[in-house]
From TrEMBL:
Positions with biased composition (Polar residues): 868-883
Keywords associated with the record: ATP-binding, Membrane, Nucleotide-binding, Transmembrane, Transmembrane helix, Transport
Protein name as annotated: ABC transporter domain-containing protein
Superkingdom of origin organism: Eukaryota
One function term, GO molecular function aspect: ATP binding
């Protein structure tokens, strides 16, 4: 070993050891620096999510907050220049537990001459003030005695009655809640003109509006004070009033107030799990190219969407039923007292609409990371929106108030959660009851019937902020159901549009106005031009841009270029002047040609191997031909069908992509059934595939194992089998045997060899052996151009480096003699190697006629006995085509100059390397020239 090199390597090692031995903190900071660089690079690469997290997030939520504040300000921010006047009128008659149930207006104690007189006076003045006749039902009359027991609720409307004892008023109100509007206990010192009384009112009574600050209490106070003054005759009488609330006991039934106000938020959240999952499933399939793969197998996009939509609708259906069952089980009033079908329709339609919204998002978003992010965004925004709007019932109806700009209402109605929340609140108010937020008055709900869907909520349930006293004209729940239906339909239309115009993984998309093109509709409804109507000549004429041969182009490639333009040539596949130009970056104007004017004609039963170094343009060519990538120029004709008629072409294509596109959770049998089903194969053919097909690619024993447990080679074999399902007329195999062991590779070769009959196959490979064994013709690509084309033999003959002979001299002393003799007899032979008696000679291709003569010379000079135990030397690559070997019995022996010899012809690999080297030199010259200019 070289000492110098040895010592420098040791030095390097020492430095590394030193570096590793650095202190904890220096290592810590060095690692931190590297990880920070990595993380920031990742954040830059995932710019979509980075922008969403840092910029979009605060903007969206603050705008939302701002909008809610603006909505609220539009109510509270109004100046009230003409405030409403509230004249202090008479005391209205009481209302019982419900509006029409019996009640007592006023109960007083003690019963005495004074109190009777005061109450009588009060009744008279009140009647006068109310303008009612004494016989009116609305008049509050002085009745004196009260004829009911403490535990008997009133059976009619009582006016002013006296209580039989001190605690009667208190106990009666306690035993019969919400039946007595007011109570008064007097403490009168007539001698000194001191009139004290305690006024009982009920701050929780339903509908009686008797809270301390209520106008009814004021009316009563004023009336009683007037009566006292009238009774005493002294306007300066000392009147002292104490207000006291009734005792309260909890009502027998409480409103599900929390469920009313937060119900929309919670039911929205229940649905969002399904919504986010739908987006994730569809986008993940897009990201993994699984959808593309199924579409290549003939799956119609509309079927794809519908299949997901229906599958998730089923989940939504179950989710809604479980929600309702839980509502019943938990005895929630909003579920129990709402018509089952009305609730089901509302929940299910909301789910369907949200699923349509999910499809729309999936059509726009391309990565699973962005999908989750978008789903979570929608969830949070929806939650805030629902929290902001529906937790205060008045906000539900504010949008229909005259003072609210109608445009806000229309914007909100474009969002399904808003429409759902509105319907839910209507149901809830009628079924779960409601509580007046100002008076804390509970209103029980009568229940929500099917007919209520078609009627706006009764005005007494509508809570508003408005100050003009007008009840807003709100829509019926069925109107909002229709709006939700329209939401869903609009989302589905946007899904269809976006699915067509948003570029797929390979950057292919339709123009923004695609739906205006009759060609699009023809392709959907299957009336594309039949091959008979199609004129190849016209097609070729339209491709007038077909380029002239490149300077220095190989004559075989040029000949092919001409041949594909010949309409009489019996090609099943014609590729004419195919081009693909990529932009170097999103914002870059630099362009890069990945496929450069490719022309190829393929006949039925032919396998063409596309060879080329990494990045030569093989996969790009395959992707364009498969229709997943848009071409920049040129075209291809498959059995008379042009490339843009993808629906027709896909029915005759079989594709094995470079990277396995398989469903991890499905096994081989399920894959075969899926793709066979998409191709519409009969059951007998599916059964045949499951037996013979899986056997041919050696997957029979693992056919029921999920693909996630397959080795790389197994996955590849399954991909090969899938590409052959449905007897495609044309099949593309992009590196079909990569990662396979030699045994399985041979099984696949045998399978493809049988499969090629009556079809056209294009395969790419990095295995020269594969190309040699399988292909009828080989096309070598470099820098997007086809450099050489022809059978493997032809390429070897045309581009081969000739023949190589290796030999070992019979002993070391004869080596010099052998060399001299060969130099003298065969001056064309070039000595390539000479070490320890082993000689390697090389004949150029143009001297191939001398080769037989040289072989015969070697045979004559070989020591037969020595050859038996001397290993044969063969050079020229593992796949070299050795045509002769030493050790055979020969006739006339010469001087026995050599003990053994071997010969090899140029391998395809050498041809390939030579062509690639030439292409690289050419490319370098070209770029040097560009740089100089
Ligand atoms: N979507 C794309 N955007 C930009 N450049 C691309 C895109 N796809 C491929 N390329 C570029 O086009 C060139 C050809 O790529 P292609 O995948 O066709 O090569 P290949 O011959 O199949 O290579 P390999 O043997 O490694 O699969 C490469 O330089 C590649 O970087």
């Amino acid at each position: 070993m070289d000492l110098k090199q040895d010592s420098s390597e040791s030095l390097e090692e020492l430095k590394m050891v030193e570096a590793i031995k650095r202190g904890y903190f220096s290592t810590f900071f060095a690692q931190l620096k590297n990880m920070l660089i990595r993380n920031l690079t990742l954040l830059r690469r995932y710019y979509f999510s980075t922008i969403a997290q840092t910029i979009v997030s605060p903007i969206v939520f603050l705008v939302l907050m701002f909008a809610l504040q603006k909505g609220s300000n539009s109510v509270y921010g109004k100046s009230i220049l003409n405030p409403t006047t509230y004249p202090l009128g008479p005391l209205d008659i009481c209302r019982g537990v419900t509006r029409s149930s019996p009640c007592i207006n006023l109960m007083y104690y003690p019963k005495s001459e004074d109190t009777d007189s005061i109450m009588q006076l009060f009744a008279n003045q009140n009647l006068e003030r109310s303008g009612l006749s004494p016989s009116s039902d609305q008049a509050i009359k002085f009745e004196g005695e009260f004829d009911l027991q403490i535990d008997t609720p009133p059976n009619k409307m009582y006016g002013i009655v006296s209580a039989p004892e001190q605690n009667f008023i208190y106990n009666y109100a306690l035993n019969n809640p919400n039946t007595t509007a007011f109570g008064i206990t007097f403490d009168i010192d007539k001698a000194n003109d001191i009139y004290k009384y305690q006024l009982w009112f009920n701050s929780t009574v339903q509908r009686n509006d008797t809270a301390a600050f209520n106008i009814r209490v004021l009316s009563l106070l004023r009336g009683v004070d007037e009566a006292i003054i009238g009774h005493s005759g002294n306007s300066k009488a000392d009147i002292d009033v104490v207000l006291k609330d009734w005792p309260t006991i909890p009502p027998r039934s409480l409103a599900d107030l929390v469920i009313t106000s937060v119900g929309p938020m919670f039911l929205f959240s229940t649905q969002m799990v399904i919504f986010i999952n739908l987006i994730l499933m569809i986008v993940t399939e897009k990201e993994k190219k699984l959808r593309e793969s199924m579409q290549l197998a003939g799956l119609k996009p509309e079927v794809y969407w519908l299949s997901w939509y229906l599958a998730y609708s089923l989940l939504a259906f179950i989710c809604v039923l479980v929600t309702q069952a839980m509502g019943y089980a938990l005895n929630l009033k909003v579920f129990r007292h709402t018509n089952f079908f009305a609730m089901f329709l509302t929940l299910f339609l909301f789910n369907l609409t949200m699923l349509a919204a999910g499809c729309m998002v999936s059509a726009i978003v391309s990565s699973s990371q962005a999908a989750v992010l978008t789903g979570v965004y929608i969830f949070i925004v929806g939650l805030i929106l629902m929290g902001g709007i529906f937790t205060t019932i008045s906000f539900t109806f504010i949008w229909w108030e005259k003072s609210t700009t109608p445009v806000i209402k229309y914007i909100l109605m474009a969002i399904p959660p808003f429409n759902f929340g509105y319907i839910y609140i209507c149901m809830s108010l009628l079924s779960a009851g409601s509580l007046d937020p100002i008076t804390y008055t509970y209103t029980p709900g009568p229940s929500f019937k099917w007919a209520n869907l078609y009627k706006p909520l009764p005005s007494n349930y509508i809570q508003t902020f408005n100050t003009d006293g007008e009840t807003p004209s709100i829509p019926s729940p069925s109107y909002m159901l229709n709006v939700m239906l329209i939401n869903g339909l609009v989302y589905l239309v946007i899904t269809w549009y976006m699915d067509n115009v948003v570029p797929n993984h390979y950057g292919a998309s339709k123009p923004l106005y695609f739906f205006l093109s009759p060609k699009y509709w023809r392709s959907i409804f299957g009336s594309s031009k039949s091959p008979d109507e199609f004129s190849i000549q016209t097609w070729i004429n339209n491709l007038a841009a077909a380029r002239p041969p490149f300077s220095g182009e190989d004559p075989d490639v040029t000949a092919e270029r001409k041949a594909v333009l010949d309409t009489n040539a019996p090609y099943a596949v014609r590729i004419v002047d195919l081009n693909k130009v990529f932009k170097s970056g999103v914002f870059s104007r630099k362009k890069f040609t990945a496929v450069d004017s490719t022309c190829l004609g393929l006949q039925e039963g032919e396998i063409l191997a596309l060879l080329g170094q990494n990045g030569a343009g093989k996969s790009t060519t395959m992707n364009i031909l498969s229709g997943v990538m848009n071409k920049t120029a040129g075209d291809a004709l498959f059995y008379g069908v042009p490339l843009n008629d993808q629906r027709s072409i896909r029915s005759m294509l079989g594709i094995c992509p470079q990277h396995d596109i398989l469903f991890d959770e499905l096994n081989a049998v399920e894959h075969v059934k899926l793709y066979a089903g998409l191709k519409g194969l009969p059951q007998t053919e599916i059964d045949r595939l499951l037996d013979e097909g899986l056997y041919a690619v050696r997957l029979l024993t693992v056919r029921n194992k999920p693909v996630r447990g397959y080795s790389g080679g197994m996955k590849r074999r399954l991909s090969v089998l899938i590409a052959t399902i449905g007897n495609p007329k044309i099949a593309f195999f992009d590196e079909p045997t990569t990662g396979m062991d030699p045994v399985n590779r041979r099984h696949v070769w045998r399978y493809l060899e049988r499969f090629k009959r009556g079809r056209v196959i294009i395969l790419t490979s990095h295995s020269m052996e594969e190309a040699d064994v399988l292909s009828d013709r080989v096309a070598v690509m470099a820098h997007g151009k086809i450099r050489a084309l022809g059978s493997s033999i032809r390429l070897k003959n045309r581009f081969g480096v000739g023949y190589r002979f290796s030999m070992i001299a019979s002993n070391l002393t004869t080596t010099g003699y052998v060399k001299d003799t060969i130099a003298q007899l065969f001056p064309q032979a070039q000595l390539e190697d000479d070490s320890a008696g082993a000689l390697i000679y090389h004949f150029d291709q143009e001297h191939s006629e001398i080769v037989p003569e040289f072989i015969s010379w070697l045979e004559q000079n070989q020591d037969e006995t020595a050859s038996e135990d001397t290993p044969t030397i063969s050079r020229g690559g593992s796949d070299s085509g050795t045509v002769a070997q030493a050790g055979e019995t020969r006739g006339n022996k010469g001087q026995y100059l050599i003990s053994t010899w071997g010969m090899s012809q140029t391998s395809l690999e050498e041809v390939f390397l030579k062509l690639v080297r030439e292409a690289q030199e050419e490319q370098k010259l070209l770029s040097d020239k560009k740089e100089k200019n």
